[in-house]
Structures are given as structure tokens and as C-alpha cells.
Amino acid sequence: MASRSSATATGAFNQNLGAYLFLAPALLILFLSLLLPAVATIGMSLTDVSFLRPTTFVGLDNYLRLLSDGRFQQAVGNTTYYTLGVTLPTMVLGLLAAVALNRRFPFRIAFRTIFYLPVLTSLIAAAVVWVYLYEPYSGPMNGFLVSLGLPPQPWLQSPDLAMTALIIMAVWRDFGTAMIIYLAGLQDIPEEIYEAARLDGAGRLAILRRITVPMLSSVTFYLMIILIVQSFQVFGAIYVMTGGGPLGSTETIVFQMYQTAFGYTEFGYAAAMSTVLFFVILLFSIVGTKIMRRGEA
Amino acid sequence: MAELELSRVSKTYGAFNALRDVSLKIGDGEFAVFVGPSGCGKSTLLRLVAGLDPVSEGQIAIGGNDVTTRQAGQRPVAMVFQNYALYPHMSVYDNIAFPLQMERRSRQEIKQEVARAAQVVQLSTRLQDKPAKLSGGQRQRVAIARAIVRKPGIFLMDEPLSNLDAALRMEMRSELTQLHRRLGSTMVYVTHDQLEAMTMADRIVVLNGGKVEQVGAPMELYHNPANLFVAGFIGSPPMNFIAGVAGSIAGEAMLRVEAPGFGEVTVPYDGSAVRTGDKVTLGIRPEAVTLGDATDDSISFSIVPDIIERLGLHTIVHSESGGRPFTALFNGDPRLRPGEQIHVRVPRTQIYLFDQDGVGRSRQIAA
């Protein structure tokens, strides 16, 4: 009895060993490219590494410093504002575009393509174009406002407006993604359910509110998590368009992390910021996955 | 409750004619079944009545009112779909309540109506469950309850039993018949299953290729099929067809037919347009065949059983006769063996005659 069970255990081990050998190259790459840097970052966050002086272990000092760092708190606030500002409008516009373009009408493929194009453009190129659009004196955005009889705005130059300007551009860029994901979700809703609702006397608005939106809830959660995580990590557009200014009003966590590490060479402190961001994003992902699982059950 | 009248209704999809010139009247409280093979247009016809698709030509009237241009929700109909089409994110209660909520009825009223409908379909204890938790039969009942609360003039059912297993289908068949009796409303039921049509219908509408082939009570279609299509479609196992050539008139209302493999067969005949030399078709239902030799009022021939299906109550014999397959159905369990020739007979009055266009010529059924 005992010998048989140990024989099966050996068999299972041999079988597993074979599997691990096949997996080894992929696991090695994952380890080197993902796990090792993550662990190294957490390690670095406990030191004052700066490559300019000898490194010493500082324990949780970097984290305690974060708690009382006014600039970091401003970055957290900016990031939260940006995330909320991007996520909600992107989802609403994406849903409306998807519902509109899910119907059969001429040129709908052309419209889908046009709405999705911003996703495919290079971020840096798009950012440069938007800097021109927002240009205070000759930019089309202000030209448009003036033509409506409204006063021109210093879009990227005002601490009150710069973040909103960045949000508008991000929504323009991201809502194509939301639209495509919602379109895929819409195609999973059987036509018969809409027909049943029509026969039950539901109008277009009632169908959207009572059938379409609830039946897309798992897609909505998925999209929300993706957009939140993506917005938390915003960097490129800010680097090109505002450089974190004016007066730090567009300085987000990742932008500050970059400046702290490569501007002030405080790698240990930047690593602590990165670790905090990592755990916040992880938390959102876990919560999101849990909610989605419950929705499917 | 309402009657349904279709006048010269046609439906085309591009160049494809799904329905051609259908005129039909279904009486108040009648259980009408549209039956036909896949693609015959029966579901299309139901969708036109529901208002889910617009007609290409013609008029639809319900309860005497022209509803041709009315939207689906504005017609006094409710529909039960093949795949139930329940709202998966809503509880059973909300599924049933949905049409009433759309009518903006009071909460109290909705509660009462839902409770009543749930009782009719025996789902009162499952109102808080989501559809995913229910069995196929229960889901179908929810769909029926959702139709009942609308108090429609006409119930439309699109193959509602085809997703259920055989035992449940039989049970639901009698439940639907009972429901119809209890509600007394007009029902239009679509199926490809002639057994469902025969057992449930007051009146059957046989469709083929977008055209109505025949309308009538089940036994009317069985005994007097209008043409070869209806004859072959109604009845199971299907009718045997034997090609022949019309010979001379034999005595009073009888026609001699020369049928290869069967010899000269004399059959009853109504004296209408069949001329000597015309190609005709004889039809013999498998259940009209009995074991034994010829008598004065029956014809006799021999067949060699190829496959024998014993069902206890019946035995179905498949054979080849005159180069064509021939099926016979005998009562009980006679001693037969594959490959052993047997003599069978068919009463002359049980032989159907179809002219060269496939149109049924009325038989004189022995009194």
C-alpha cells in the first residue's frame, strides 16, 4: 500500500518535472523581466540608493517620508482626479458609441474605424497635435470658443485647467477602446432578448436602461479596472504636454516617480512610491476580479 | 381574445420570397398551428404577426383592427420564444413583471398579476431565483407567465418545446393544451413537428416554400390531404407513394391504375379531371396495411421486410417494393423476420389518389 502510493507520487513528480522543464524557458523570462524587478524595487525602497553615494539600509524611512510629503500627496490627488475624469466619461461615451454603431446603417464600419483611430495613433504624435490644438493664441480650441462668443482659455498654462485639458485628450484617445470592448459585449446579447423587450412594450431608452446596461455589467467592470489601472500609470502625455506643470497641477504619481528617480537621483524614495502604486493597483485588480466573478455566478 | 386575419401577406428579403400571398383567418379562441419543414416561412409569418418584422405586402388585422403598421409593443400579442428569451440578469419575478412595468402599472397591481401568473405556471416558489437556476421546462414556464400577464389577444409561440427533452416535451404539450382551454385565448403556435401539430391544434396551417398548402382540422388533413406535400408531411411514419398510370374508369366511381410492382389497382375516385393515360400517384398510409391475402374490397401484394422496428404497441416494417421504399405499420408484435416475404393487403378505400399535378382527388371513405 505504502509502496504503491510512493510509486504514484514518483510518477506524478516525473510527470510534473517534465512539465516544469517545458515551462522553464518561459518561467525564466517571466522571472527575469517581471518578478526580479518587482522584488528589486521593493528591496530598493528600503534603502537610500542613489548611485552618487554609498547605499545604506533605511528601513521604512522612505514610506514614512511619503506620508508627510505634501508634493506626493498633491500627486496622489492629481492622479485620482485624472483617473475619475478619464474613466467615467470614457465609459459613457464608449457605451453610447457602441450602442449607436451596433445597429445596421450605412458606413457603420467607417464610423467604427474613425472612432477607433485615436487608439492607434502614436501617443507622442497625438500629444504634439493636442498641444497645438490647445495653443492659447492661434489654437483651434480657442478659435472655436471665440466663434461661439466665449472667452479664450489658457488651456495648458492655467493650474486650474491643465489637468482637465489632459483629461479631454485622454478621453478622446481611450473611448475607442471602450467602444470596441462594449461592441464585443453587445454582440453577446442575443437578438431575441431585444425582441422580447420590444414585444413587452419597452422603448429604446427602457431597453438601454433595463436590458443593455445591466447585461453589460461584467464588461463595464472589466473596462473600469483597465481604465483605472491605465490612468494611474499616466506619464507620456504629461511628459510631452505640461511637464507636470503649471505649479505641479498635472504632476501625477508616475511623473513624480520619474522625476524623483532620474531628476533628483533619489532611487530609493522613487522605489517606495512605485511600491505604493503597485499595491494600490493590485488592490483594484483583486477587487475588480472578485466583483466580476460574483457577477458571473 | 381576438381573431387574426391575414390578407395577401407577402415577405421578401432582397430577391428571396419568404412568404407569398398568404391569406388566412384564425378564429377567436382557436389554437392554430403553423407547421412545415425548416425554411417554409412559418416563423417568418409569426414574426410578421408579432410586428418584429414589417410585411412587404398585405394586411394584418387583429380583433378587426388593422395593425400592419403598428410597432411590436403596440399590438395585442405576446410571444414565447424558442430559446425562452428571458432576461438573464432579472429574477423570475422581474421577468414576469417587466411587461407590466413597461405599462407603468402600480406596484401593488403588478405584484398581484405576477402572483396570479406564477400560480398558473406553478412557479410561485421560484420567484426570487435567476433564470440560470431553473431547468429548461421551468424557464419555458417563466416565458409563458410573462406572456400571460400581458393578457394578450393572441399568444404567439415559436417552437416553444423544441429545446426540451422528449419526456418534458410531452408533459408541456398537455400543459399548453390545458392552458389554452383555461385561458380561452387565441393561440398561434409554430412547429416543425407534425406530432405537436396533430395533438394540440384545433386547426393546422401547413406551409411549404412560403405558401399555404392546406388549412384544416388535424383529422381533415390526415384523411383528405390536399396534395402530395401535405399527405407526406402529416402522419408518421409518412405515407407511401406509388407512381402509376391512370387506366379506364371501372364501374361506379372507381379508377383502374397501372402501378409497376403492384399490378393493376382499382381505387375509389370522385370522377374529376383524371384522364386515361395520365400519370398519377397512389398513396398508402403505413397504418392502412394489414397482413393477409386479398379480398374483394382490398388489394394485396407481397413485401420483403428489410428492417423491423418493434415498438411493442406497433411494429414498423421497412421494405423495398417496386424499386421504392415501402413502410408498413402493424398492430402488436407479429412474427416477422427480415428477408422473409410476407403478404399484405390494403383496403381500396384507404388508397389515396393524386393527379399528375400532385393534387389530391377526394376519396370515398367507406361508411
Automatic annotation (TrEMBL), chain A:
Looking up Pfam families in the UniProt record yields:
BPD_transp_1 (PF00528)
Q: Does the keyword Transmembrane apply?
A: yes
Transmembrane parts of this sequence: 20-44, 81-101, 113-134, 219-241, 267-287
Q: Which family does it belong to?
A: Belongs to the binding-protein-dependent transport system permease family.
Q: Which residues form the ABC transmembrane type-1 domain?
A: 76-288
Using the record, list the residue span of the signal peptide; answer none if the entry has no such feature. none
Q: How does it sit in the membrane?
A: Multi-pass membrane protein
| Protein localization | Cell membrane
**InterPro entries, per this entry?**
ABC_transporter_permease, MetI-like, MetI-like_sf
- Spell out the protein name for this chain: Sugar ABC transporter permease
Tell me the keywords, alphabetical order: Cell membrane, Membrane, Transmembrane, Transmembrane helix, Transport
Q: Which domain of life is it from?
A: Bacteria
Name the predominant localization.
Answer: membrane
From TrEMBL, chain B:
**Any keyword Translocase?**
no
Among SMART domains, the record links this protein to: AAA
* Matches recorded under PROSITE patterns: ABC_TRANSPORTER_1, ABC_TRANSPORTER_2
- Origin: domain of life: Bacteria
Q: Does the keyword Transcription apply?
A: no
Q: Which NCBIfam families match?
A: PRK11650.1 (NF008653)
Family in the record:
Belongs to the ABC transporter superfamily.
Please state what the protein is called.
Answer: Sugar ABC transporter ATP-binding protein
The species is Devosia nitrariae
